[in-house]
Amino acid sequence: MAVKKVALACTVCGSRNYTISENNQRTERLEVKKFCKHCGKHTLHKETR
Questions:
Q1: Measured distance CA(4)–CA(13) in Å, rounded
Q2: Are 23 and 3 in contact (CB under 8 A)?
Q3: Architecture label for domain 5-48
Q4: Structure pTM?
Q5: What is the Rg, in whole angstroms, of the alpha carbon atoms belonging to the chain?
Q6: Which residues contact 15 (CB under 8 A, 6 or more apart)?
Q7: What NCBIfam families does the record tag this protein with (predicted)?
Q8: pLDDT tens track of the chain, all 49 residues?
Q9: Residue from 1, 46, 10 nearest 28 by CA
């Protein structure tokens, strides 16, 4: 069985820069500050499904 992946999207520009494995135990969407190569700075990234 393959591992399902979800993307982390930048809240500023909307680009999907990172992928993580899906976790069914997480009830809320993940929000992390990551570096966005399109914005050139650290921004908030939210989990997309």
A1: 25
A2: no
A3: Single Sheet (2.20)
A4: 0.84
A5: 11
A6: 9, 36, 38
A7: PRK00504.1, PRK00595.1, rpmG_bact
A8: 789 999 999 999 999 999 999 998 989 999 999 999 999 999 999 999 8
A9: 46
